[in-house]
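Risk register update: the risk of archive-format incompatibility is retired. Evidence:
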Amino acid sequence: MATMDDVTLASAPTNALTLPNIIYPVVEQLDKSGYKDIQSDLHTTFFKLEELYPGFSRSFLQSFINKEMSPLSSTTNMNELTLKLEKYCDKSSYFISSSRGEQEFHELNVRSKNLKRILSRIPDDINEKREFLETIKEIASAIKKTLDSVSNTYQYFKTAEGRQALENEKKEFIKYSKNFSNTLKAYFRDSKRDDVYVAANHLLVQTDYLLRTIKLYCETDTLDDSLYPLLSHHQNQARLVSPSRYSSNNNQQHHNLRQSSSSSSSANNRPNSSYETGYN
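Archived output:
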């Protein structure tokens, strides 16, 4: 029987993606309907509710579907929906600003965007085994290229704290990449596609957190933390590093990035970009 931790782990990525992939895009369309004056308030309210009550947005949306769109209630899978909608969302704010003209940042944007796009194809491709196997190969390649691009930005981190933060997020990304690989192996035995959707959503979220770390240490613009719902829950899973760096412009923002409890590598060593997919 599944434990509460198992349930939380399974729901966490979809809860984190419901706001940016479904709710926020709807709110952004309000100006076209004459409701631009309440856009900001709705955006802030949903974010605060999600932070106070993790999973609120998902529950709200599911309740709305059940009540107002009852014919769809039995066929709507939220894990699948958030994953599938990734490719339709404007996620430009998540990527490194064009003000960083270095080729390494441009390459990182292209490769991470490609990874997210391929992951979002899973619900469409999973029904055809041959096509799905090709998609899996593309994902494995995209993961490795993304990690290589992340390592290429390492030279632009000016502090040991920043380099350690990047190393920590890379470890989390690799952990969930391996979890995705193991989930795929299990899928070909038990055909539990929802587990695949959850594992893919985890990778989407971890990609966002990885990009966020690079933005935090390599850009000067203030970060909008409402783009990363449930970030505090993500951070509280392990030991936290000092928040001394987390400020930008005239606003003092304290952001705690996770420090892996098992990390013993020096902050001055270049992170290892290798990744064994284990998809065989």
